[in-house]
TrEMBL record, chain A:
Catalytic activity, EC: 2.1.2.10
Catalytic reaction list: N(6)-[(R)-S(8)-aminomethyldihydrolipoyl]-L-lysyl-[protein] + (6S)-5,6,7,8-tetrahydrofolate = N(6)-[(R)-dihydrolipoyl]-L-lysyl-[protein] + (6R)-5,10-methylene-5,6,7,8-tetrahydrofolate + NH4(+)
Subunit organization: The glycine cleavage system is composed of four proteins: P, T, L and H.
Name of this chain's protein: Aminomethyltransferase
Lineage: Bacteria, Bacillati, Actinomycetota, Actinomycetes, Kitasatosporales
Top-level EC class as recorded in UniProt: transferase
Free-text function comment from the UniProt entry: The glycine cleavage system catalyzes the degradation of glycine.
NCBIfam families reported in the protein's UniProt record: gcvT (TIGR00528), PRK00389.1 (NF001567)
Originating organism: Streptomyces thermolilacinus SPC6
UniProtKB/TrEMBL annotation, chain B:
Family matches, as InterPro entries: 2-oxoA_DH_lipoyl-BS (IPR003016), Biotin_lipoyl (IPR000089), GCV_H (IPR002930), GCV_H/Fam206 (IPR033753), GCV_H_sub (IPR017453), Single_hybrid_motif (IPR011053)
Any GO BP: protein lipoylation
Organism: Streptomyces thermolilacinus SPC6
Functional summary from the UniProt entry: The glycine cleavage system catalyzes the degradation of glycine. The H protein shuttles the methylamine group of glycine from the P protein to the T protein.
Gene that encodes the chain: gcvH
Protein name as catalogued: Glycine cleavage system H protein
Keywords on record: Lipoyl
All residue ranges annotated as the Lipoyl-binding domain in the record: 23-105
Top-level taxon: Bacteria
Cofactor section: (R)-lipoate
GO cellular component: cytosol; glycine cleavage complex
SUPFAM superfamilies: Single hybrid motif (SSF51230)
Amino acid sequence: MSTSPRRTALDALHRSLGATMTDFAGWDMPLRYGSERDEHNAVRTRAGLFDLSHMGEITVTGAQAADLLDHALVGNIGGVGVGRARYTMICREDGGILDDLIVYRLQEREYMVVANASNAQVVLDALTERAAGFDAEVRDDRDAYALIAVQGPESPGILKSLTDADLDGLKYYAGLPGTVAGVPALIARTGYTGEDGFELFTAPEHAETLWKALTAAGEGVGLIPCGLACRDTLRLEAGMPLYGHELTTELTPFDAGLGRVVKFEKAGDFVGRAALEAAAERAESAPPRKLVGLVAEGRRVPRAGMAVVAGGEVVGEVTSGAPSPTLGKPIAMAYVDAAHAAPGTPGVGVDIRGTHEPYEVVALPFYKRRK
Amino acid sequence: MSNPQQLRYSKEHEWLSPAEDGVSTVGITEHAANALGDVVYVQLPEVGSTVTAGETCGELESTKSVSDLYSPVSGEVVEANQAVVDDPALVNTAPFEGGWLFKVRVTEEPADLLSADEYTEYAG
């Protein structure tokens, strides 16, 4: 077992661009190329280019591929149309979240499951185990794909100049096989930034070609390479959860305010059904803590793990926090006791290194793009 | 990245200007600013307070983390840079100039401060 971090197919390119690299889930990934604030703002106003090759692709094929995924995941995966994608979760028998996923239905009997880098092995193992008795194959395709994302309002125009694919017909959360800059790629209209954008899955040997073509196509409209630092602030502003922060095995989708991803109406049993039905009832009758947004009145930044306080009592915990380039203030997501979770609740603060700093409780997301 | 020759440096990545009338200016190096990323909040020692060489006297917060600010020398703080409090990005854009942090009337200077060349080698 090697402990040196894995490098993506674009590693040499990142280094030539002067990226600050960081270890992320066992991968050496670009944290930022220059200023993470500039990168964040580029995605909000123009376009940004990301290497996301650390994400874990798992292919599920076979006559019962849909049945397997309906059993293994909480969503109605059999109901996803060919060429469409779905945000879903994989839970344990006790309802705890193993990972949040995007599942693409590539063909009638072929799906691609995309797991977080830190959970790819866990998800692969769980799907493999849950496939017992199904006429379906679970394949580890982590090395088969590089993943490049182009995100931001200019991204449709940039991509259009490189492909004949029908991007206007490609809705949010759809994906189709195509050719971009002369190389085969799965083109998906998905992302983790709160902006319009695309994720392009391609063979690692084509990654450099694709990256360079997108860079050239975006030059005139302000596209810049973007690292994981701004990806985190972009998703935080958009109110999107991050596994290990807002989502853990200790929480069910209902605890995270994402009960809507659990589809009890689908036929047959699925892993976690009984526990999740109980969790749904609890969430209905006596919600424990709720995931809320916090906006700073001061300038100090709340961080994951800090206590949320009210009246001198601990009433919650921060799961993610960062200075928000778009709002110009520090923001955070936090699980807060229901009694203090309503937007506008007065007297809520965060214990920042011993000082109780005041925060405004707000509904998520902090930022929504104008369609 | 070049570290100005006339300054001296601490292993905590602060720089110290030569004293004028007993007062030196303190800031953090470009190397430190780059490692921090975009600085969003600066807490400086108060004017009139006493700082001690090698001990914390403030903090620098960036997108990802909080770092303690250490004083490279002992003495009395005679000025804090309000411009950098108002616009912490100055630490990134001009760490050796407009992004200076505080001025101190030096009472004691550690013997192990580094020259520019020594610091350049130390910071790698």
